[in-house]
Every structure is written in structure tokens, then in C-alpha cells.
Amino acid sequence: MPLKGKTSEALKKAPTIVTRLIEDKSFQAWAVKSNTSDQAYWEEWISLHPEYREEVDIAAEIVRGIKFSRKQLSPAEINEAWQDLRYRIGKPKRLRNTWLHAASLAGLAIITTALWLWLGTEADELVYQTPFGKTASWQLPDGSKLTLNAHSKVAYSVSDDPYPIREVSLNGEAYFEVVHLGENEAIPFLVKTPDLTVRVLGTEFNVSTRRGLTRVVLDAGNVQLQLPTEAVTAMRPGELVEYTPLDNQIRKEQVDTEIFTSWRKHLLKFDDTPLGKVALVIEDNYGVDVTFEDPSLRLIRVTGEISDKNLETLLLALSKLFDLDIEHSRHAVHFKKMTKP
Amino acid sequence: MTCISNYVMSPAFNQRVLWKKFKKGNRQAFEAIYHEYYASLYFYALKMTANRSLAQECVQDLFVTLWKTRKGLADISSIKPYLFKSLNRLVARSAPSFYGGPFSTKPKIDIAFSPEDLLIEQQDDLHKRETLTTVLNSLPARQKEVIYLKYYEELSYAEIAETLHINYQSVINLMYKAFKRLRLKTALKRLIDDYNTFPFLILSAELL
């Protein structure tokens, strides 16, 4: 036993002897009375070192410790936190056809037409795409109106086989104003996201597919959502539905739809939204990496409208509103507390 | 043969492998680490901040930063103290601006225990729990932190040293001081409480 034979001189300081005691397996056993074979030894040791009475008592209490009842989180709570984290680190995937990013907005329509002619022969597919920081509107060949948020892409096709159908696939975020088509039998309009299909006849709605989450917000009319599980959900105006295939859960709520569609008017609307969420929108729309000096800044609540004409205007508004220093380089934005009042 | 299996089974080895995989960008490894430590980290942050949203935000921020900077992280063999240390620093940085506005002076992180935190075998011993809570909360901040990490999180002394960025002996010294005070204060508190309930007892004790 390590303490055997040590003289009082060698163990002068109280913390030193306490250290030696609490590290000693045999002492630990004695302190919790789990092993009676150490009993005689330690009782003898204590009687030989009466000057350490207090240290022995304290060491024994340290070994016995304080019993806390440990709190637990349910697997559902941890999973919810994980989904939130996944959403945060889910960087927007670079869209293909990146050469379009360089295109100015004015040139886009021409390029789109060119694309149609180019791809049209094979796929009968029209492709619309926006770069970071730009939104754009088009009339689709069926008369429906499409507004694309920044860094988004839509491919439009029409098919007659086996029955007439209008179909778009979406990456990013878009607002659709779909016109009703068909005399006796309405021609459906389908929006396919990586996770689900929105089926409509004639209506106005917003669809976003950012970061592995599909979000549909319905302004007017009726839509049906078809999940990969074959489940179908109907939506009513003013409703928001979020779906991610990860937990296969649908989240539905009544919302102020303006908050989700005001981007079309170059406005970002917020209703008690944490700055952390605003940061994700900025990342998605402008292709920058947003960081914060410390996490508490993410909790600042934002309510109101901010112009979203361009990133500079948006950042300037945020810095004025919340006394923030915002550093902005080509690919990064960093939020800091204002250093001097 | 047993030697090899022991090697593979050892938690330190597993952690090192898990961490390496995570550093290479393996999402499963990252998710495994997250699920393993989220609750501990959340409750630690909650103890330090006393605010749920700030605690959640700090833990999420920690993991976002880990993921973004994974390539440059050190190789470690013990994940928990590493995460605790990072979280501790992050909370120290965030709590002042959260509580005091951007221009205030830093309030100290201070853990507060509640009677519900304590597990006391006898069911009806609420009074004992309250006494111990009061006494625990009267300890200096650093001593409370060591007690929390040792008995709530069951970290080793070496891991606590790493978490708090102090040396091993300092951890023991803090423990020693804390328990010395606890003994004294508990005894004192008991005396005062007893006096309030049975004033004559003290009197008779004094007479003896």
C-alpha cells in the first residue's frame, strides 16, 4: 500500500495527503466500506497518524462524494436537436450549370430560351436558374407564373403520356402561380422536390427545398402533398407544411404566409425570428458562410421587414438595428458585437 | 488474442477511432458523437447559463464549429473532456453578452444547484437536501464547478483539469477546499437550524 512507511514529514501538506488518499484504491474501498479486508489496515494507519484525522475524514467524504440525480433527455429531444444541427450544417449544394452564375439577370431570359432550344429536342425540358443574390420571374408556357428565389433551379416539362400533366422539379425556393388548365378534366401541375411531390390544379404557393427540408406554404387554392411513403396530405390556404425524409415527420401549422413569400418583393419579413435563422436565409440566398462572434448573438430576435435588394443593404440594416459590427468578405459574413458604444 | 480484443474494445481506442473518422468527414461518426454527448453538454451549459435557449445555442454552435473546423482539430483519445472544455470557453464568451448587453462587464459563470439535483436515499429527507443545496451554493464558483463535473458528470480528476484548463493538483485542492467548507458549513447550518427548532438544545449543549 502506497502510504505504508511514509513518514509524517513526507506528507506535510494537507492537500498532498488528501491527494494520496483519494487516489489510493484501498483507501477508496475503505471509505465506501466495500471491502472489510482494508478496514484493519486503515484503522491502524489512522491511529498512527492522529494529526491527519481531518484530512482522512475529508478524503473519505470526497471519495463517497455527493449523489446527484442525473437528468435525462428523451431520444426524441436529442433527435430534434440533431435535426436542427443537420439543418445548420447542411450547406446549400452548389447547383449544376454554375456557368449561369456569371450571367446577368438581363441575359438570363435569353440563355433560358437558348437552353430550351438546346435541351428541348431531347428532353422537352425548360430550365430556369438563378445565381446567388438574384431573384427572377418568368411566365411558363402553360401561362403559369414562376418566381425563383436566389440560387434556385426549376426544370419544366409537359407530358401527354398516359394523360396530360405539367411537371417541374425544384431545387431551392420558388413561388408558383399556377393557372387552371383543361376543360372537362383538369391538367395537374406537379412540383417535385427531392423529398415529395406537390400536386395542384390551379393555385398560388411557395415551395422551398433548402438543406434537405421541403417547406410548402399555401397562399390560395388547394394542394396535395405526396410523400415517398405514399401518404397524401391536403393543405389549406395559410398553412405551412415542413417535411424531411430523415424522420419522415410532417409538421403543419397556420402561418402568416407573407413571412415566407415576401422575398418576391425583395423584402425579408421576420416575426420574432432568431438572428441565427436569418443567418441561414442569408447563407442560402447569397452563398456566403455566416459566422457569429459568440452563440448568444444568434438568439437576438428580429421582427419587421428588411430590404433584401442586395446583401450590403441587408447587412447594413441588421447592423443598425442591433448594434452589430458586420465583417463582410466575398464568401464570408461575420457578426460581432459593436466594440465601442 | 485476448490482448487484441481488449485493445479493440478499449473505450479510449474506440474514441480515438471515432474522432479520426469524424475528422475525415464521416457523418455517422459525427452523429454518434453528437448523440453520445448532447445531453451531458446541454445540462452542463444549462447549469452554467441558467437559460435553455442559450444553453441549446451554445451546444449547437459548438458542434457547428467542430464540423466546420474538423480537418484542423487535434487527435484526441478522450472526447468528453475535450467537448466540455470547448463548451466551457464558449459559454464564458457568450453569457456576458446574453445577460449584460454588449457593453456590460462580465458576470461570472456561476453554477446553482437545486434540491432536485440531489439524490438522497431517504425519501422524506427534503430538509437535508435543502441544507446541502444551500451550503453547496454558498461555495465559490470554481469549487462548485469541480463538484458538478466530478459527481454529476463523473469526470476523472484529470478530465476535470482538462475541462477547466487548470492542473491536476489544483483540481484536488479545489475539492479539498470545497469539502472542508462543506463540513464546516453543514455543521454550522445544522446547528442554526436545530437552534431555531429546539433553542433549548443548544442551551443544554452549552451547559454540558
Quick structural gist:
Chain A: InterPro entries: FecR, FecR_C, Ferrdict_sens_TM. Chain A: Residues 128-224 form the FecR protein domain. Chain A is α+β, with helices and mostly antiparallel strands and 341 residues long.
The oligomerization state is: heterodimer
Binned strand content of chain B: under 5%
Largest sheet of chain A: 7 strands, mixed
> At the fourth CATH level, what is the homologous superfamily of the largest domain in chain B?
RNA polymerase sigma factor, region 2, helix turn helix motif
Report on the biggest sheet of chain B.
none
Percent range of helical residues of chain B: over 70%
Give the terminus-to-terminus CA distance of chain B: 69 Å
- How many separate domains make up the residues of chain B? 2
Neighbour order of strands in the largest sheet of chain A:
1-4-5-7-8-11-12
* Number of E-state strands of chain A: 19
> From the alpha-carbon coordinates, what is the Rg of chain A to the nearest angstrom?
32 Å
Order of helices and strands of chain B: HHHHHHHHHH
Total E-strand runs of chain B: 0
Description:
The complex is a heterodimer of chains A (341) and B (208). Chain A is α+β, with helices and mostly antiparallel strands and 341 residues long. Chain A has three domains: 8-64, no CATH class; 98-256, Sandwich (Jelly Rolls); 266-337, 3-Layer(bab) Sandwich (Phage tail protein beta-alpha-beta fold), CATH 3.55.50. In chain A, 30% of the residues lie in helices and 30% in strands. Chain A contains nine helices and 19 strands. Chain A has helices at residues 14-23, 25-31, 39-48, 53-64, 75-89, 105-123, 258-261, 275-286, 311-322; strands at 125-129, 136-139, 145-148, 153-159, 165-171, 173-177, 189-192, 197-200, 204-208, 214-220, 223-226, 232-235, 239-244, 249-254, 267-274, 289-292, 301-307, 324-328, 332-337. In chain A, helix 1 (14-23) packs across helix 4 and helix 2 crosses helix 4. The radius of gyration of chain A is 32 Å and the shape is elongated. The two termini of chain A are 63 Å apart. The model of chain A is unreliable at 98-106 and 116-122 (pLDDT under 50). Chain B has 208 residues and is mainly α. Chain B has two domains: 10-109, Rna Polymerase Sigma Factor, Chain: A (Orthogonal Bundle), CATH 1.10.1740.10; 110-208, Arc Repressor Mutant, subunit A (Orthogonal Bundle), CATH 1.10.10.10. Chain B contains ten helices and no strands. Chain B has helices at residues 2-9, 11-23, 27-49, 52-68, 79-100, 126-137, 141-152, 157-164, 168-197, 199-207. In chain B, helix 5 (79-100) packs parallel to helix 8 (157-164) and helix 6 packs across helix 9 (168-197). The longest helix of chain B is centred in the last third of the chain and has 30 residues, at 168-197. Chain A binds chain B through residues 14-15, 18-19, 22, 54, 57-58, 61-62, 65-73, 78, 81-82, 84-85, 88-89, 276, 292-299, 323, 337-338, 341, and chain B through 31, 34-35, 38-39, 42-43, 53-54, 56-61, 63-64, 67-68, 90, 93-95, 97-98, 102-103, 116-121, 132, 136, 147, 150-152, 169, 172-173, 175-176, 179-180, 182-183.
